[in-house]
Structure formats: C-alpha cells, structure tokens
Amino acid sequence: MYEHDVIVVGGGGSGLRAAIGAHEAGADVAIVTKLHPVRSHTGAAEGGINAALREGDDWELHAYDTVKGGDYIVDAPAAETLAQDAPENVVQLENWGMPFSREEDGRMSQRPFGGLSFPRTTYAGAETGHHLLHTLYEQVVKRGITVYDEWYVTRLAVTDEDDPNDRSCHGVVAWDIQTGEIEGFRGRDGVVLATGGDGQVFDHTTNAVANTADGVAMAYRAGVPIEDMEFVQFHPTTLPSTGVLISEGTRGEGGILYNGEGERLMYEYGYATNDGELASRDVVARGELTEINAGRGVDDEYVHLDMRHLGEERIVDRLENILHLAEDFEGVDGLENPMPVKPGHHYEMGGIETNENGETCVDGLYAVGEAACVSVHGSNRLGGNALPELLVFGARAGKHAAGEDLGEPEIPVGKTEGDEGIEESDVDFPVEPGALAASSAVVSGDSPEGVVDAALEAETERIEGLLEKDEGVNHADVRSKIQKSMTDNVNVFREEGAIEEALETIREAREEYEDVSVADKSRTFNTDLQHTIETRNVIDTAELIAMGALAREEFRGAHWRKEYQERRDDEWLKHTMISWNDGTPELWYRPALLEGENQTYEPKERHY
Amino acid sequence: MSQSHNRGLVEDFGRWREFSAGMWAWVFHKFTGWVLIGYLFTHIAVLSSALNGDAAYTQTLQGLEQLAVVRVLEVGLLAVAAFHILNGIRLLFIDLGVGTALDTQEKSFYASLILTGIIVVVSVPVFLEGL
Amino acid sequence: MSTQTPDTDDSDPQAERMARKDERAAEREEAASTPDVGDDAITLKVFRYDPEVADKQEPRFDTFHVPREPGITVLDALIYARDTYDSSLTFRHSCRQAVCGSDALFINGSQRLGCQTQIADLNDSETVRVEPLPHREVVKDLVVDMDHFYDQMDAVEPYFSPKEDPDGEQLQSRENREKIKMSTRCIWCGACMSSCNVAAGDNEYLGPAAINKAYRFYFDEREGEDRQEERLRIIEQEHGVWRCQTQFSCTTVCPKDIPLTEHIQELKREAVKQNLKFW
Amino acid sequence: MAERYSSFSSGSTRWFLQRVTAAFLVVTLAFHFLLLHFFHHAPEITFSGSHARYSVPAYFVTMVLFLAAATFHGTNGIYNALVNQGVTGTPKRVAKWVLVVAGVLVFVQGIRVALALTGGA
Ligand SMILES: Cc1cc2nc3c(=O)[nH]c(=O)nc-3n(C[C@H](O)[C@H](O)[C@H](O)COP(=O)(O)OP(=O)(O)OC[C@H]3O[C@@H](n4cnc5c(N)ncnc54)[C@H](O)[C@@H]3O)c2cc1C
Ligand code: HEM
Ligand code: SF4
Ligand code: F3S
Ligand code: FES
C-alpha cells in the first residue's frame, strides 16, 4: 500500500492545482493519474481564463455574468468565490512563468468572450490550456510532488455506513497500466477527485478519448450525489469531421457565422440581436442547428465560420493555433476560406456535488474541476470560466484537504432528510435506471488501512473476473451504442420520447455489459481492460444525463425541451440531484442559492 | 521495465530512405572527417620518407604517383575534402545562426553536394594527367 | 427566447436530417465492407510485441485492412483496426488533436503524431507501416517507455524560478514573448528525441526537447540574469548542447514546428559568449 | 542526470576550437590542395621542390599551423564522435588518451618531416 497525506486523482489542471495547494499547506501529496499529467485534456483548452484584473472590471461583474450566463441556477457563493479568487490565481500563474499574450505595455492581454460584460478573458495565444497545464506541471516538478503516472484509479475506498453523509473515504485502488499491478493508495487526510469531463458519452465531442467521467461514476457508486448532469454544453464551433474545437476566441476576435445561404445567421434569424456571434454558447449552438435542420446549412451538416476579414497579421498573432487546427484536421486554410463548424459536445456543467471547499458529503472525499459541480456554471458555462474554476477550487480543495481552515462553507452537501427545500422527484422512467442487481462500491473495514485493503480485495476480484472471462461482448460495441443513442436523443434539442428511448438503450447496454469480456489477457499495458472499465463509467454517466434531462421539464440554458419552451422559475430554480442508493437511483432536488454577499441575483430574462 | 523490448540497431533500417537532408549531411560529414584524419596519418607516414634523405622522398612520392590506384584514390580524397570543406562551411554558418531554417539548410546541403560534384569532375583531368 | 425554437410543427427536421445522415453513413459503411480488401482499403502494417503473450514475444507485423474515408488519419485507422479486428492492439492516444503528445509513432519511416497524419498525405498511402518510436524500449505493441525522455526533461530544471518572488503581475515585452513563443509549444511527444541519432547513441545527451525547454526559460526575461548563468551551466555540460551535431532530424519531425536546431545552436553561442567573457 | 561540471571540462572550449580550426583549415587545406595538385602537379613533387617551399619561413609556419590545426580538429572530431556514440567511463578515458598520444605523435613526426624538408639538401 502506498501512503500519503493527500491523494489527488487526476493530473489535469484541477488536479495539479489541488496538489500544489495541498503541498503549499504542508501536506505530503501524490498525484495518481491514468495519463501523464501533460497529456491531460486541459491542454486542449484554447480561449482563455476569465478574471477581473483590470480597471473598470470587478469581481461582482464577473459573478453577475456567471450567474446570468448559467441561467440562474448557479449557486451564488460559488460564483462569487470564483470571481473573487480568480484574479490572484491568474497572477499566480503569471508569476509561475505562464507565457500569457501581452499588451504593448507588457501586461497580460485580455479579450472579449461570449456572455461577458467586460473583456476579461486572459489568454496565451489560442493555446491557453496547453500553457496552463504545462506551467502547473512545472510547479509540481519544482516541488518534487510524487506523480504516479499511468496508474488507473478504479475505485474509491469508502466506508459502508447506510447514510452516505456518514461515510468516509480513506484512499483509492489503482492499477499500474504498464505492469498490471493493483495497489491500494491510502490518503491519510483526503482524496481529491480531479478526473475531468465526460465527452465519451457522445460521439461528436471536443473532448479526449480519456474523458470517460471515471471520477463522477466512482463517486456516484460510492454514494455521493451527482448534480445537474443534464446540463451538457454543446459548443457551437467544432470541426465537423473530428469534433476538434475552434475556439470561441475566433468569434471574440470578430469571426462571423454564415449559413449555407451566406447569411449572417445570428442576426438574420434573430437568434441573438445584440451580441450576434458572441451570444452565449447554448444560444449560438441552437441557432446553428436550427439553420441546419431547416435546410440552410452546408451539406446538411454544418455552417461557416469566417475570420478572413480579420487580416492575416491579427489572425497569426492571436489565433495562429486555429489556423493549424483547421488545416490539420479539416484541410481548410482559414486565411483563404471560411471554416466549416457545427455544434458538438464540449463540457459537462454538472458533476460530483461539492461545496466551495471542494468537499463532498463523504468525509475526506473532495472533487474539483470538470468532474465536480460546485455549481458555478449552472445550466450553461460561460467560455473562459472553466479554467479559473480549476485554479480556484483546485487550490481550495487541496488546501482544505491538507488541513487549512477556509471558513464555513455556505453551500450544503449531501442529502439530509428534512433539510430545507429538499424535495423528491416524481418523474416516471420508462425503464428502471441503475444497476441490474443491488450493488454499491463501499466496503467495511475496522481501520482506515482495513478499508483500503477491503476495497483492494474487492477490486482485484472484479478485475480478475473481467480478465478470466473468455467469451463475451466487446466493450467498444457497448460504448458506441451509448454514444450513438445519446447523440441522437439527448443532444442540443431534446424531447420526451427521444430521451426515453435513450434510457431504454442505456438499459440494454447495461445488460450487454454484464456479458462483457476482455480479449486481451496480458497484464502489460492492457488498454482493452482499461477501456472496458471505462465503458461502465460511460454507461452510468449517460444514464445520469438522460435521467436529469427527462425529469427537467423546462427550457433552461443548455437544456432545451421541445415540450417546454420556457424557463419555469417558480418550479425549477433547483438543482437536479441523483443518488446511487445501492443501485436504485433516487432523483431529488435542492434549491439554487441566489443569495450573494452583497446582492440577491434576481432571475431575469437572458438576451444577447 | 525489465520486460520491455530493445530493438537495438535494427530499428534504424527502413529509416534511411526517410533521412532528412540534415541527416545525410551528418552522415557524409562524419564519413569524410574520418577519411581525412585517416589520410592525415598516412600522409605524414609517407612524407616521413624525407627523414631518410632526399632521394628516398622523391622516389617514394613519385613512385606512388605512378600507380593508377593512388591517382584514383586521390580523386576520392579530393571529393572527400571538397565535401568536408563545403559542408563544413555550411555548418559554420549554421553555428552562427545563418541558414538554420529547415528549407535553407536543405538547400545549402544540396548546394555543397553539387559543388563538390562539379569540383571533382573538373579536377579529374588534372589528377589523372600523365598516367 | 421564443427565437430559440426551431420549427416546432409536426415535421421534425432534426429527425429527417439524422435519417439522411444515417443513410449516408450506411452507404459509406457498405462501400467499405464490400470486399474487405476492396481496391480502396488501406493496408495497415502494425508492429506487435507483448512480453506476456507467447506468439507476440518475438516482435512481428500484423496486417489490417481499413476502409478509406476522406480525411482519415493514422490514429483513426488504428482505432478502427482495434475496435473492429483486435481489441488487444495497444497504443497511446487521447486528445486526437495534436496537443497531448501521446501518439508519436514511427509511420512509414518517420516520427509523426498519429492523429495529425492524414493517410492521404503520406508518400505511400496504400500501405501504412506503423511502428513504435525508435530508440525507445517497447513496452507493448506501439507503446514505448517514455521514462528516459521525462528524466531528460527533468534534468534541465524545467520550471520558472526567478531569484525573488515577484510582487504582483510581472511585465514582459511582446518581443520577449515572441522570442520564446515557439519554444513553449512543446507537447512532450518525444518525436525529436527518437529521431536524433546522437540521442540514440549517447544516453546522457539531454536531447532536443529538454534543451528547448531550457531555452524557453533561458530567454524568458522575467527570470533574471543570475538564473541565466545557472541555466547555462546545465545545458553546457558535456552531454548538453555540445552533443548536437545539427542533424536537423528533430526539427524535421517536430509536430509543433519548433525550430529546435536553431534553438540549440543559439544556446551554444550563448555558452561560448559567456565563456569568452571569463577569459 | 544534470551533472554539475567545473568550467574546465566545459565543452564550449573544444566546440569553439573545433570551429576556429575549421575556419582556418578551410583556407589552408584549399591552399594545400591547389598548390600541390593544380599549381604544382603531384607527380612532379620532388625533394628539392618541397625544400624550396619550406625554406620560406611563412610557408613553414603556415604548414606547421596547418598540421596543428588539422591534428586537433581531427582527433577532437573523433573524440566527439565517440562521445556521441555513448562511449563513457573507462573506454572513454582510454580513447581520450590514445587520441592525445596519437595526435602528439603525428604532430611531432610532422615537425620532424618539416624540419627535414627545410634543412636536408
Ligand atoms: C477543446 C476544449 C477547449 C476548452 N477551452 C476552454 C477555455 O478556453 N477556457 C476555459 O475556461 N475552459 C475551456 N475548456 C474547458 C476546460 O479546459 C476543462 O473543463 C478543464 O480543462 C478540465 O480540467 P480537469 O482538470 O477537470 O480535467 P482534465 O484536464 O481532463 O484532467 C483529468 C485528469 O484525470 C485523470 N483521470 C481521469 N480518470 C482517471 C482515473 N480513472 N484514474 C486516474 N486518473 C484519471 C486524467 O489522466 C487526467 O489527468 C475547454 C475544453 C475543451 C475540451
Ligand atoms: C578544411 C576545412 C574543414 C572544415 C571547414 C571542417 C569543419 C568541420 C566541422 C565544423 C566539424 C564539426 C562537426 C560537428 O561537430 O558537428 C568537423 C568535424 C570533423 N572534421 Fe573537419 N573540417 C575541415 C577539415 C578537416 C580536416 C583536414 C580533417 C582531418 C584531419 C577533418 C577531420 C574531421 C573529423 C574527424 C571530424 C569529426 C567527424 C565526426 O563527427 O565524426 N576536418 N569538421
Ligand atoms: S520539441 Fe517537438 S518533437 Fe520534441 S517533444 Fe516537443 S513537440 Fe515533440
Ligand atoms: S536531431 Fe540531434 S543532432 Fe541536433 S539538430 Fe537535432 S538534436
Ligand atoms: S492523440 Fe493527442 S497528440 Fe495525437
């Protein structure tokens, strides 16, 4: 068994920041990650980091934009913490050497981004995430923080009390991808999940192949409520063939969207009257898809994003990376031609329920980054708000896990019977969601080590079982079935029948998965086994999204419902919560917190 | 990783076809450098006949020059020296940061090859004269 | 917000479009699956090795036939082969967009990122030969041991470390950022190291990627001059910059177009300049 | 990995000298070739011809420098090539001293030849 004070699962931006935070607070911290840190998908982020750094801007404006952008089911304390802590975190990055783009006077550059009332998106070319990830990793190296890279975490070591609120997490079980060795990792003071997004639930995504929502699924099965999963952001400008992202920065700098008839669609068809291309992402994505569906797209598939008028100099200066991406992955020269784009899965607003300190309801278990939902993004994330989230809440969770006092959190976590505002859902699912038989990923043990050992034993058995089974279904078939169904049915436009169909398909996939087998029997670098384990997480996550989507009978932010064409604030200013409940998921709600430090965020109509 | 596989030098096969210009330049420069230093040693050895008196010296040198192989080898030596010099100059410029762009360095390598060729062709009559 | 409504009448344009799309996909699939080895299939020859599997202990090449789709990359072809024919085919990949640096491979005799290499752009686009990165130990199939590469990166103290902690935002001129811009683009793919014959011979040679990393900090004006000297000390050690023989292989293969040779040369000159000063 | 080094073992001196000698050799080697193959023809070289040339002090000095430069450049080049191939430890030390000795021998022998050519007749 490996032992450290704090175990961080995941080496992306959030995990690295958490590890540095814990280290700063004096803990012995280790990162356990299935990819070497610099391979994490944070490196793909292009546009920038929002932070109120300059004269004329302040954190309250940032917080306001965030709440409004999220269509008012953002928790105000989270949005305000984000806005308050972002500037110092961005300056911190600068002090760690991150090569931000610069103004004439040598200060960091900022640019406009969709949904922002001030150009506060701090950037480093069109490859901000790459620089952020590498800068953070450099600091991890500098501090000598232990990194177990290419170790796949398969399970949390969580105790098995009946009420998840009473459970505690003592570590994780991970398996060394290179050698096949399975080991327990004990986190004396805490475990931080920083496992990133869930793009693999859909088949057209800007996300990496490694984004399989492992953390969300592991926490879910250990009893932690999962929040707001139906809010999936579809980015309006992804390349049609691969899903590679064309940054919002392109529109921020003045790029224009045209439909197949050469009309500037955002204005012509009134999807957004003021901000045009810079309206919030959900608005633009729907605008494009409506055009395409109405036969005004190009090849029935996409629209055009044109940046040629910006001139070569400006494009090369600020968007050079976009030129490479369009050339390498779509064969289009952005200086000569408009680029084809269409909406694609991009970001999961929901995730593991946490408070401002990154704590979940399970003692010692934290979650940060895209895997978590402290609820700063509500129903729609503003561009440039995920990276500051990684920094702000990553640092907080790391410090808190290492024992630093960050004050009482305002956001409650965990389902406590009789708590104010908590209500059960009465939605009917077409099929029973959850496990086929009662199941839960918790264990008993008489000491923290005992718990880790028990988890290790259970997990070893599961993995051996998978490897021993001779004939069966290939995970890839199950995964692609889920991806196809989710893309067809729980996409930008959603309707009841389709979502139900998706839930049925997910159920079928679950049944097929029962029979899954791993063809590769080798212990060495067995990606077949890895992908098989991931597929189970993809199934659980797809179900979380579909359940939430079916239950939410309104149109809010990224969640559009054919049957309910408006935001229904009287009834729906609340977060969707799903608890695993030993395999028979429970859906319940917790009211959104709109009470801020100096103001209450009154829901207003969003228009751009 | 005690289990990992080391392909040894085999892995270089199949690669030479894809060698970039810079790689070829490196291979040739290395080869010519070794030939030159080898020659330097031989050369001094041959000239050492001078220590045995003037007749020995003259005889040794002229005797050697009578042999066709020696003449042909001398052409080879010229080729080697010419390439080493020209490519050496190219490398010196690259050291100074001039012509380090990928395509420039390729062109300068081809230029040194072609120049070497020309020098050799032009010099052949001179070298083989009087055989 | 009503503007957000697509035609909600009974016809369902989205469903119709999806149907059209599925049809097209089915046609393509059909075209690809009729005789598997159809004229237009790509022949993929892949290096296989697994220390634990009896018939893979001796490395061999397996052949797969992959349908040719417009714009198909080597990575797409590998994924297709794995998901369709042999799920034990092993390779690293993640981002699919040339930022994670996982899938540097030896493709038709040269180091390339699988995801960034369109098969149609290869010299020989009929037969694609995929091997693990040369001069690295093979762990399994296309996966190589990267530890040595990471060690060399670590050796150059790859982190920003000014003499004093900065007080607030540091300024940096545009020129200076421009100067280090290319060097900051490295994605640690290891292609350069693998292509360099000197690095193959001299295990201690820092190698182009690590030297480039040193360059990135050496020329960052925010670090200060004292640090420059210390950094110089690291890169001008015997197995540092001097080992570079300007082969240009690294520069040729770098997927991020970093002018590595130029950077290494510049550091050599810096070192000579420094040492001349002491004389 | 990043072994600290003392400035004496700095590769920069040898690297720099390799370039300086190269630059010098460009001139001398070209001169040497032109003189002894094109201006005078190699088959016609005689002791007295050489003697005449070596008797000019400038020529003598140039040739000695030429030899020194070539010897350093050549042996140092080989040493580099060996280090590049990953030769380390004892073999490396042995190679180094063998090269130094060989270099000195060639140089001494060359001087003796030059003196013989200068004096002699
Ligand atoms: C193309 C693209 C562009 C974007 N642009 C922007 C932008 O401009 N601005 C912005 O603010 N946001 C942007 N985002 C969003 C933002 O980049 C991501 O939300 C954020 O980087 C996620 O970081 P993370 O640390 O949570 O996860 P990741 O960076 O994905 O890291 C996840 C880590 O967890 C590890 N891991 C996962 N599962 C396991 C397991 N089972 N065991 C062990 N380790 C595991 C992985 O190895 C990885 O290291 C963008 C996102 C994408 C996809
Ligand atoms: C005439 C002008 C010459 C020039 C411009 C020249 C230039 C160079 C340069 C720049 C290098 C270094 C390559 C590197 O380290 O990257 C080199 C290497 C070398 N040179 Fe020369 N050189 C010349 C003459 C000679 C002569 C006369 C000899 C023989 C005595 C010689 C023998 C070598 C050897 C052995 C190497 C090492 C090759 C290797 O790396 O294996 N050179 N030369
Ligand atoms: S320098 Fe280029 S080739 Fe080398 S690791 Fe970095 S990105 Fe890859
Ligand atoms: S290939 Fe090697 S020799 Fe130098 S130019 Fe690149 S490091
Ligand atoms: S898959 Fe990330 S670089 Fe190719």
From TrEMBL, chain A:
Pinpoint the Fumarate reductase/succinate dehydrogenase flavoprotein-like C-terminal domain residues. 479-608
Membrane protein topology class: Peripheral membrane protein
The FAD-dependent oxidoreductase 2 FAD-binding domain covers which part of the protein?
5-387
**What is the name listed in the Swiss-Prot or TrEMBL entry for this protein?**
succinate dehydrogenase
- The active site consists of R281 (proton acceptor)
Q: Which InterPro entries match?
A: FAD-dep_OxRdtase_2_FAD-bd, FAD/NAD-bd_sf, FRD_SDH_FAD_BS, Fum_R/Succ_DH_flav-like_C_sf, Fum_Rdtase/Succ_DH_flav-like_C, SdhA/FrdA/AprA, Succ_DH/fumarate_Rdtase_cat_sf
Q: Which UniProt keywords apply?
A: Coiled coil, Electron transport, FAD, Flavoprotein, Membrane, Oxidoreductase, Transport
- Tell whether Cell inner membrane is among the UniProt keywords: no
Q: What class of enzyme is it?
A: oxidoreductase
**What family does this chain come from, according to its entry?**
Belongs to the FAD-dependent oxidoreductase 2 family. FRD/SDH subfamily.
Q: Name one GO cellular component term.
A: membrane
Write out the GO MF terms: succinate dehydrogenase (quinone) activity
Required cofactor(s): FAD
- Organism from which the protein derives: Halarchaeum acidiphilum MH1-52-1
Q: What is the predominant subcellular site recorded for this chain?
A: membrane
Indicate the segments annotated as coiled coil, or none if absent.
492-519
Record-linked SUPFAM superfamilies: FAD/NAD(P)-binding domain, Succinate dehydrogenase/fumarate reductase flavoprotein C-terminal domain, Succinate dehydrogenase/fumarate reductase flavoprotein, catalytic domain
Location in the cell reads:
Membrane
Enzyme Commission designation: 1.3.5.1
TrEMBL record, chain B:
Matching entries from InterPro entries are given as: SdhC_prok (IPR039023), SQR/QFR_C/D (IPR034804), Succ_DH_cytb556 (IPR014314), SuccDH_FuR_B_TM-su (IPR000701)
The record, for SUPFAM superfamilies, names: Fumarate reductase respiratory complex transmembrane subunits
Know the name of this protein? Succinate dehydrogenase cytochrome b subunit
| Natural source organism | Halarchaeum acidiphilum MH1-52-1
User: Which GO cellular component terms, listed alphabetically, does the Swiss-Prot or TrEMBL entry include?
Assistant: membrane
Task: State any single GO MF term.
Answer: electron transfer activity
Keyword annotations: Heme, Iron, Membrane, Metal-binding, Transmembrane, Transmembrane helix
| Residue stretches spanning the membrane | 23-47, 68-89, 109-128
Return one Gene Ontology term, BP aspect.
tricarboxylic acid cycle
* Cellular compartments annotated: Membrane
Major place of residence: membrane
- One Pfam short name: Sdh_cyt
**Which superkingdom is the protein from?**
Archaea
UniProtKB/TrEMBL annotation, chain C:
Could you tell me which InterPro entries the record lists for this protein?
A: 2Fe-2S_ferredoxin-like_sf, 4Fe4S_Fe-S-bd, Beta-grasp_dom_sf, Helical_ferredxn, SDH/FRD_Iron-Sulfur, Succ_DH/fum_Rdtase_Fe-S, Succ_DH/fum_Rdtase_N
Recite the UniProt keywords alphabetically. Answer: 2Fe-2S, 4Fe-4S, Iron, Iron-sulfur, Metal-binding, Oxidoreductase
Domain named 4Fe-4S ferredoxin-type is located at: 176-206
Q: Which GO terms describe its molecular function?
A: 2 iron, 2 sulfur cluster binding; 4 iron, 4 sulfur cluster binding; electron transfer activity; metal ion binding; oxidoreductase activity
Where in this protein does the record put region Disordered?
Answer: 1-39
Where is the sequence biased in composition, kind Basic and acidic residues?
14-31
Cofactor needs: [3Fe-4S] cluster; [2Fe-2S] cluster; [4Fe-4S] cluster
- What processes in GO biological process is this protein linked to? respiratory electron transport chain; tricarboxylic acid cycle
The entry assigns this protein to a family as follows: Belongs to the succinate dehydrogenase/fumarate reductase iron-sulfur protein family.
Do you know which NCBIfam families this protein is assigned to?
A: dhsB, PRK05950.1
The identity of this protein, by name, is Succinate dehydrogenase iron-sulfur protein
Species of provenance: Halarchaeum acidiphilum MH1-52-1
Automatic annotation (TrEMBL), chain D:
Q: Which Pfam families match?
A: Sdh_cyt
Q: What is its main location?
A: membrane
Can you tell me where the transmembrane regions are?
20-39, 59-82, 94-115
Its keywords, alphabetically, are: Heme, Iron, Membrane, Metal-binding, Transmembrane, Transmembrane helix
Asked whether the keyword Metal-binding is assigned, the reply is yes
Question: Which Gene Ontology molecular function entries are recorded, alphabetically?
Answer: metal ion binding
* Compartment(s) of residence: Membrane
State any GO CC term.
membrane
Source organism superkingdom = Archaea
Q: Gene3D superfamilies under this entry?
A: Fumarate reductase/succinate dehydrogenase, transmembrane subunit
Q: Which InterPro entries match?
A: SQR/QFR_C/D, SuccDH_FuR_B_TM-su
Q: What is this protein called?
A: Succinate dehydrogenase hydrophobic membrane anchor protein
Question: From which lineage does this chain's organism come?
Answer: Archaea, Methanobacteriati, Methanobacteriota, Stenosarchaea group, Halobacteria
